[in-house]
Amino acid sequence: MAQLPARPLSLSRDQQEEPGSCQLFGQVPHLTVIHHSKLEITMLDRFGVSFGTEGGSISLVCTMVVVPDLPNVPPLAQWYRDDKLLKAGKLAEIKVGGGAATLTLPLLAKDDEGLYTLRMWTKDGTTEHSAYLFVKDAAPSVAGAPGAPISIKAFDINSDYVLVAWKPPNTTNEAAITGYFVDKRESGSATWSQCNDSPVRICKYPVHGLKVGHAYHFRVRAVNSAGISRPSRESDKVTALDPAERERLQVIKLDGKHEVVIKDDDLEGYVTLPGEPTDMHASEIFKSYIVLSWKPPSPRGRAPLWYIIEKSVSGTGAWQRINTAVKLQSPRYPVFDLEAGKKYQFRVYSENLYGASEASKPTDPIEKVDEHGVPSAPGQVVATRNTKSSVFVQWDPPKHPNHLMGYYIDASLVGSKTWAPCNHKPYKFVVHGLTPGETYVFRVQAVNVYGLSDESQESTPIAVEPALTTPSAPHGITMLSCDGASMIIAWNSPKHGGGSKINAYYVDKRDADSLAWKEVNSAPTKTRTYRVDGLTEGTFYEFKVQAGNLAGVGVPSAPSTPLKCEAWTSALPGPAYDLAFREVRGDSLVILWKAPVYTGASAVTGYIVEMAKKGHHYHPLNEEAIGHCYLQVTGLEAGAEYTFKVKAVNAEGVGKASQTSEPVVAKALPGTQEIQCGVDEDTGDIFLSFEACEISETSNFAWSKNYKEISDCPRVAIETKGKHSKLTFVNPDVSDLGAFSVHVTDTEGVSASHTLTEDALNTMLELSYNIRHPIVPLKHQLNYEVLEKGHVRFWLQCLKMSPAVTYRFIVNDKEVTSSDSHKISHDVNTGVIQMTVDHFSKASEATYTVQIHDGRAKNQSSLVLVGDVFKAALKEAEFQRSEHIRKQGPHFAEYLSYHVDDDCTVLLVCKVTNTFSRTCYLNSTFFLQFSRKDQGHYKAKLSDDRGKDTSILSVGVVVTSLPLLFLSGSSASELVLQCTPEGIRLQCYMKYYTEEIRTAWLHKDSKISSSEKMRIAGTAEMAWMQIREPSEKEKGHYSIQIMDATKSHTRTFDLSGQDRGRVVGGLPDVVTIMEQKTLSLTCTVWGDPSPEVTWFKNENEVVSTEHAKITLEANKFASLTITAVTSEDSGKYSINVRNKYGGEFVEITVSVYKQGESPPEAKIGGRGATPAPLASKTPAQTPTPAQTHIPQTPTPSLKSPTPSPKSPTPTAKSPTPTPKSPTPTRRVKSPSPARSLKSPTPPRK
Q1: Residue 887's CB: how many other CB atoms inside 10 A?
Q2: Helix (H), strand (E), coil (C) string for 702-714
Q3: Measured between alpha carbons, how far is 463 from 386 in angstroms, rounded to an integer?
Q4: Alpha-carbon 1018 to chain mean position
Q5: 826 and 805 Cβ atoms separated by less than 8 Å
Q6: Separation CA 284–CA 201 (nearest Å)
Q7: Residue limits of the Fibronectin type-III domain (predicted)?
């Protein structure tokens, strides 16, 4: 397994050059040809490990120095992904020039994940750099759906067939993948079509039925129980061509100059019938399908060729053609519909316009099973340190690889149940992008065409830390002071500490004109400054420094510039040193430095800081010298690079500039957080807290105030745990105001600051006081409620309460304790404190107070119950007391009320309780049928020796009309259509209807008034509207609105005029047939929606039997087939075809004659179709127009029986008449359906 080194990443997302574009820098004439191998190239900033997301874009940039640098002769740069050369196109934009080579991927997909290599041609050969690009899944279209499949490829390409293959996506927290859909589109078209009706479970699918010579693209979508994934990146373009055509060409060279192309057809002679195919076998065998392959025939002839395939269950010898609907032109064919558990044999014929060949040799028996499944789980997983953000993962391969494609690696934080994918292409590699300092476990799955294996066992936990190595070299050696016999030098710490704390520095020196180095300090120094003694004045010296840690001593630094040992006598101060940066953000940073060792003739009074943006000159940031050794710099350009210098100032002037700082980029570290200031909810302590985005084993949190480190300060307490550090103030006051900062050592500059202001401190002090002197929070203040028996309950509710809570009730400044008359209690779970007063009287008028103590918290609540408020409470208490006394004897649990029954009967009801057999009921009427004469007052009485009770109900006109008002609208049926000789009628049935009920008929939302054309009326149980002689004008939406006492009820019907059911053709008028023959009456029916079909014989419905079989195919072809007819089968047959918009009857006369007799003479006459009104229940004899009359609807009678004393619940009979409509003439159409959408059945005689 190859380990990928981590390198710095340079991303550029704002370059939008067209793919393959070439940018010209200047107009320098190309005088001589300079080959790429003549250029000298030095790579500078190199792209590092990168991370992208599907659908996004990313640029990999490598800057360089090219000698000679000629704008019109850019160097040759080649980009590779996983050692495959990339070409410029819409998915990869390549640009070289301006001192940089850039690869831009404008539309990322997981297929772009891999190892990217930039290879440059130089005069010394090639120079190259590699780093990994990871691409994560975009957000799914449906929550829980899987990621998109990858690596879609089409191969085994033929004239009408290709085999599409792909790799499964990595799934961690999603449900298991149940299958895949394959889509195709023709090149030049944007329309995708799905190739398979049901998901295929393996990562291959044969697509057939392609058009010869057409180019196609393919894509795949994964499916699980949550939904369907985003589509994969489409495959490269493939063209459906027969590969055998090229093999049939021969090229002959003449005289070494000319070429002659000869087809095999020319050498075969004149061939008509083709030969048989050969080598037929199954090239793919899976549970869902098999793919048959064979070699084309030879000779095959010049005529177009196709193939016929037959199958046979092994051992039966019966052959069946399987490609009846497909004219197969390729020597490949997928078979899907084989039964599991059976073995099959196959053979193939060649065929052209002259005929078919002999059959090929049958295949061996083939069974539809998977030869292999998913791989077994990988073995032991071992994770080892690599860098501060990566881990090297190794594992044992699975025992059963089963055509292994690769591996997927998942990672999880220790203690977390959530797994995250580390890669999306099944390769082995180092896991990058981890959080420094966190502890992870890893697991691995093996991948093949069948999917993902079980997960391996988890690795042992590992903290993400760099591997332990020796430190890199110190740098930036500078002289701070010299007295002629000694020098004080300083240096910067190594850029890489090696994974452990640097605990030693060693200094060597030499004369500038000597090659021999001498050791300066045999004992290590821990500081980054050192006084070198024993020097000779006037001599130039060079120095080098080595750093050491637990792993040993690192490489020495580069020699310093020669430094002259000469006493400093200048009145100006020496240089500041040890420039460092904190709190680097996108627009600001803080620079710190140390005061110069050499102060000059007077003390240092301040500092001037100069800054230069890359490519610009230095300029001072402060006009007046600042008196401290730090400066916050703002107004930076995000992503720009800056350097700084610091000059010390004393009374004599401005001294020598410090050594130039390291370059710093205005960009925050990923995951950077700021210091949070707050108050502890439990203790009331004021604190500052900080969580680092990264730490190492040797990291420390260094807190400072005004950038002076805090150490052993009694005013603060510092607590650090893991990546979190907390500074807590002890008795804070105005002396604690200022800028507090923290930085984490041995990191890439993790730091932050917070300025504590007086206003913020006062706010937190107030909050701290409230926490330290808490109150018991109340959800409800003190209140009262009147209970039964006239008891009064005083209560309040706390938001939370401990079992140790104490409280007391005070009434008019006197404490009340719990007694028989005042019951006091509380409930810790609900937080309720209550007192119940048994006898609430005039003496209870008072102010009530509850005082609560719960630990350190306390509170109180009062209720003033005097005046009108008290009178209302007393009145309610006395009422409840009297009610309690009333209920001691027989009483009404529910007083008299009325109820309207479904049969329009009004019932007077009441409910009594606590009665005995000796209880008397006086003047009690419980059930009554109402009319207007029944208005008045009704009384019910109860009494026995325990007490009595009375209930009175006043009944007026409104109550007597309730059946009319409420039952009319609520019981209304949907509108139904009735055909009549005059036209059509819309009817709405209801349980009770009179003309007093408010109704309104509407057509297309316009109100209809009764007229000769549209007559509106009704009967006792329905409202109707008659449309005479309907025309196109009367089509549309109809509705009736029925208004009762409280709301409106609407019923609708659509007369849009769709296609009614009808017989298109196919039936004769008369049929004569000999006995024992088979009679088949078949016709074509039509209607939208599809009609229902019913057959009749002599007006009786025909039921399908073995003798008379009824069929309806495709809702279009209706048949009545009678086998072995006899004389009993003679008669008049008819077919009734109808849907909700109408229908028609067609009649056929059938005569059966005996063998030897002459057929009866058929009557001459045309057959007519009879439109059948849906309301008609019988295909009866059609009356003539003169006989047509308007049917009279009988008036129903509503009987309201008077209830007898023995039967308290009366029953109301409300017969519903059935309106009749005569059968219209044969040519009258029925435009709309009646109440029932089923075909009517004629009554049996």
Answers
A1: 16
A2: EEEECCEECCCCC
A3: 11
A4: 57
A5: yes
A6: 14
A7: 148-243, 276-372, 377-467, 470-568, 575-671
Instruction: Answer yes or no: is pLDDT of 1008 > 70.
Output: yes
CB atoms < 10 A from the CB of 359, how many?
Answer: 16
Give the whole-angstrom CA distance, residue 135 versus residue 861.
Answer: 62
- Cβ–Cβ under 8 Å, residues 1070 and 1163: yes
Residues 76-87 have pLDDT tens digits of: 889 999 889 999
Question: Which residues fall within 8 angstroms of residue 115, CB to CB, at 6 or more apart?
Answer: 4, 81, 82, 83, 130, 131, 132, 133, 429
Residues, the chain = 1245
Q: Please name every residue paired with 1023 in a beta bridge, in sequence order, or none if there are none.
A: 988, 1018
Helix/strand/coil for 950: strand
Q: Which helix (H) or strand (E) holds 762?
A: helix 758-772
Say if CB 1241 and CB 1101 are below 8 A apart: yes
The DSSP annotation for 32-66 comes to S---GGG-EEEE-S---SEEEETT--EEEEEEEEE
Tell me if 1043 sits within 8 A of 998, measured CB to CB.
Answer: yes
Residue with tokens 């994964």: 222
> Contact, 105 vs 89, CB < 8 A?
no
Encode pLDDT of 364-395 as tens digits: 998 877 656 888 888 888 888 777 778 888 88
- Residue 266: the pLDDT is 61
Residue 975: closest CA among 1030, 1053, 888, 906: 1053
| Three-state secondary structure string covering 130-184 | EEEEEEECCCCCCCCCCCCCEEEEEECCCCCEEEEEEECCCCCCCCCEEEEEEEE
Q: What is the mean pLDDT of residues 687-700?
A: 88
C-alpha–C-alpha distance, residues 185 and 216, integer Å: 6
b or e along 436-456 (b: 16 or more beta carbons within 10 Å of the residue's beta carbon)? Answer: bbbebbbbbbbbbbbbbbebb
Tokens of 59: 């640029």
Q: What is the DSSP letter of 735?
A: G
State which amino acid sits at residue 307: Y
**Rg, the chain, Cα only:** 50
Bond into 1089 cis (ω within 30)? yes
Q: What is the pLDDT of residue 1053?
A: 83
Q: Backbone phi, then psi, for 1108, in 5-degree steps?
A: -120, 105
* Residue 42: band (very low, low, confident or very high) from pLDDT cuts 50, 70, 90: confident
| Those residues with Cβ within 8 angstroms of residue 1078's Cβ, 6 or more apart along the chain or in another chain | 1121, 1122, 1123, 1124, 1125
- pTM of the predicted model over 0.85: no
- Token representation of residue 404: 């292994």
Query: Is 173 buried (19+), middle (13-18) or exposed (0-12) by CB count in 10 A?
Result: exposed
In 536-603, which ranges are E strands?
Answer: 540-549, 552-553, 563-564, 577-582, 588-594
Phi, psi of 1009 (to 5 degrees): -100, 145
Query: What are the CA-CA distances from residue 165 to residues 176, 204, 746, 838 (Å)?
Result: 19, 4, 49, 85
Q: Is 490 helix (H, G, I), strand (E, B) or coil?
A: strand
pLDDT tens digits, one per residue of 223-271: 999 999 999 999 999 998 877 666 655 666 666 666 666 666 666 556 6
Beta bridge partners of 458: none
φ and ψ of 875, to 5 deg: -60, -45
Smallest Cα–Cα separation from 1179: which of 1070, 1097, 1120? 1097
Coil, helix or strand for 836? strand
Residues 277, 263: Cα–Cα separation, whole Å: 19
Asked whether the predicted pLDDT for residue 1207 surpasses 50, the reply is no
DSSP secondary-structure letter at 1010? -
Place of tokens 């003047």: 923
Residue given tokens 């918009």 in the structure block: 1141
